[in-house]
Amino acid sequence: MDSERMGNFIAELRKEKGYSQYELAEMIPISREAISKWERGKNGPDKQSIIRLCEIFEITVDELLYGERKNKYNSTSINEIKVNLYEDRNQAKKKLKILLFFTILLLIFFLIYYFITTYNSLKVYTVNYYSDNINIDGGLIVKTKEKLYFNLGNIQSIDEISNMELYYITKNNERKTICESNDNKIEFEDYKGYDQYINFDDIDNILKNLYIEITSNENIQSLKLNINKNFSNDYIVPKNFESINNNSKLAIDKVKFEEYVKNNFKFQDDSYYKKIKNYDLYYFLDNKNLNVISQKGSTIKEWYFDIEKNYFEYQEYQYDVSLNNFIYNNGKIECNISNCENANDAVLELSDLLNQLYT
Questions:
Q1: pLDDT tens digit sequence for 103-148
Q2: Hey, what domains does the chain have and what are their CATH numbers?
Q3: Roughly what angle, to the nearest 10 degrees, separates helices 3-17 and 47-57?
Q4: 0.85 exceeded by the pTM?
């Protein structure tokens, strides 16, 4: 469709009828400026205006679109105009479909790339160790694809610590030092490819064989650290907190419990300790944290309970292999390992133990 040719035809028809642009505009109705643009071929009339123009000038739609009255010389061309418009529309649809296809394809490639580069790219580990004379609690390792943050957390020792060495055992049974410290704290950041502290390519082996050597006035001890994966974005749909059985919710009298601890636990260093059957209980008065450790054979259960927040992390492992790990937060749980089928039992076990202490 030739807009300039159709515009000239509209101007010719208007003049034949003796209408001004204003008069034609009022008959449609439309603005005079629109009539002027049609006649100059700047743009064409819309569907409703085309119908109205054909009524006013007593011509067919095909004649208006072609830009001439029908005669024996142009009848074939006028008859073909609908076919041409149909083909033009089909071509436009094809181009739109091709554009849409490549847009969707590009989006799919982007999503695949994003998924590959971000899936399981963030991992969070807890680090701890408990014994009669040394406790390491609140350690944290955060690893992304580009960066690693390491904080050993609180280190409590009966003896004064003069030096600490963090190291791991390689697959060839060689000892590799990561870093040393003499201020009772180990904390550092590392970057992929920099390897000042950690070789990212060997991170799994390092975490499985991570030790700390603590030198005190009395002796030197090498301790194998407990590393447990707390979080990993290895899921497609974000995890939701799941409600726990109402019968398993913790209900603890904080004041009564703390009073019992002070009167019945043995104070050592900055924590209170008590052994009940096969449970070792450590209560830290400064941050209101209770650590409970239970071992039966090769299976170890650990609760890290914040009394104030009614929040704890539960870990269960065997031969340093995690079997279950979840977070309890005021009656709700978030599974990190396994499907938390035994979550109610773990909460009830801790609740029963605490109730036995002062009831």
A1: 999 999 998 888 888 888 888 888 888 777 888 877 899 999 899 9
A2: 3-70 (1.10.260.40), 123-232 (2.60.40), 242-358 (no CATH)
A3: 40
A4: no
